[in-house]
Records
---
Amino acid sequence: MIYTIETIPAKLFFKIDNTGDYTLLSDDNSVKKEDLQKVWESILFYYQKNVQGKARDSQLDLDKKINSLESRLLCIKRIICLLKIERDHELERYLRSVGYQLTEQNFFDDLKKIESLSDMIKLKIEKQNSLLEKKKDNNTSKTTFEDVLLGYLTILGLGFKEANKITLLEYLALEKQVKNKVK
């Protein structure tokens, strides 16, 4: 028998995912490794598309925010440096368009104020980096499969299920129910 997405025990899936030994998909030694590899790739594709994709998208969103903030900060710092040397109406217009106030009477004082206000962007970057690190730490925790499964069953008020027999699809359904219940 070769396990498929419908029949693979969740515990076996995570074991293969951690070890890379997709030969565990079958006890039949006559099955070609290439066939097992194709089956494993289809199972893994399903998992990545339906489960990991959401977490990865969240991390990508945070990365985008961080990169955007860093670019904005760098741009503002460079504009301020240029404006201290020579006035440029286009650069001044840009600073005004992103919400900073520049006046003719207090031009250089306003630049100093903008420079100090732009440091708030650094704080936003640090906050986003902290959120990103937390997400990465949550993804690398060393909780066992059995711990997670029993936690899900307890939250949902379901009876005990043997960890070695629950399929990946059943496990993913439990995970989805827990997330919906926690919301």
Note: Residues 33-85 form the longest helix (53 residues).
---
Amino acid sequence: MPEPAKPSFPAPAPAQLPVAAAPTGNHVSLRTALAMMYADDLEEGLVALDAAIARATQSPTVRRKVRFKTLALQLSLPVALVGLVVAGADLFDPTLPVSAFTLLAGLVAVPPLVLGAWQVWQYGAGFPEKPLPLAHDSAPKIETALAHLQKETGPAVWRRVSFSGRLERADRHLFFGRLRYLLLSEDFAVRRQVSSFPLPFKVAGDLFLTRADTEHLRSLVRPKRRGGRGRDPKYAYVDAAIAVLCDPAIIDCNLADQTGAVRAIERRLTEWFEEHADETGAVPRKDLIRPYAIKVFEGLSRTRTTH
């Protein structure tokens, strides 16, 4: 995929959105939350999610649009820079014709126009009233989850502010664009192809859901199946994994010591099962918990590597 460029577009000033402290143990990345919609096993869910994102990025329409936008910026940026330098140098030159200065100013305006067109293609002009058609094939589980995030009454998505590290609530229209699946990519170069909404910036920060909203969204996308042999797992491994992923003690553990980190995660998982045991007091054996501890460790390692 070509090197993406910083998007920009004209938009009305947004309403003041709520701001929260920096991400804590109460927050789950949106990517992790959506992966849990696919499977009880987090690794399996991430693989399925990445497959859907790959289909989106490899779509002929998406590839053509990204290539055209990148080429337009590569051609217009040098010309705009020359125009800016010449216009600045001759700004106070009384002999410079107005038409020449207008031409130079027009050259400077070309890159913002390209980025404005990129923004309009993604979201349309103004505030979209409903999600725009995707530029690629859809994935039912992602569409179902995003449909809840698009609602005014749906779960709130939070994004990290680049400079302060604090969280602010993302505008739900962010999930109305044609490239909304790309927001779930682990690759920052892919995510930044999506224009932010409504501010004229790329989506630079990570996106999060609270733990409560993650569990609520999962219940909406993956409702519990009816009882029956082999239908319901005996233990809530996914709920336990979510809780441990949000535990500050686990988030801050030393991942360089894999053995120690996995043991700490395993202990925390065991504690969670003991705290949430039913009247029988039954908890899974350690040999059943350990694979999930390893999956949690791998998920934390990938997350920390990308930051």
Note: Confidence is low (pLDDT under 50) at residues 5-23, 225-232.
---
Amino acid sequence: MIVTLDYDVKFEDFPKTFLFALVSRYCEGKECYVRRSANGRTHVKIMEDVEDFYKRITIRSLLFDDPARISNDIRRHAMGKPTDRLFDIKGYDGVVKHAGEWIPLSFLASPPTVNICQSKKTSRKRR
């Protein structure tokens, strides 16, 4: 089963984020795709054969998937219902929205260089 991620980040902003850098690093040597969700946010799917539900949940957690989605999938799994779903179509008040086409993650801009351990230097005036 594939690993799916849902980010509450506008699709056009995704390549500028830490999440994109993290997913890009994880996807090195893997087949990964991205698309605009029906609400203009970001969906990712990683074509990795991970049959164990709890391994998929661990991967999703480490890649900062939506925590509410993870929690709901744990409940669904306990009840024997499908998990790891990403919706292709959503409808509100009679308006139907469609998700975009899947494109290879590599088609987006190169991930930004992110050093999460770097401290900010502050300048002090000398007297």
Note: The helical segments are 18-26, 53-62, 67-78.
---
Amino acid sequence: MLPLLTACATAPTADPICPATDQARTALAGALVADGGPQSQRAGLVLIETLDGVCR
């Protein structure tokens, strides 16, 4: 999965992903804290941190 995210991050079309997913990433983080189990919290955290790192 990470190579796919890395490939997307380096593609010229990756820029629209950042503003388009900002609210969704925030909502996912809140949902994972509210009712996600340990595995979903870890998986969500990896996804959110990866996208946040690309979108800075």
Note: DSSP finds three helices and no strands in the chain.
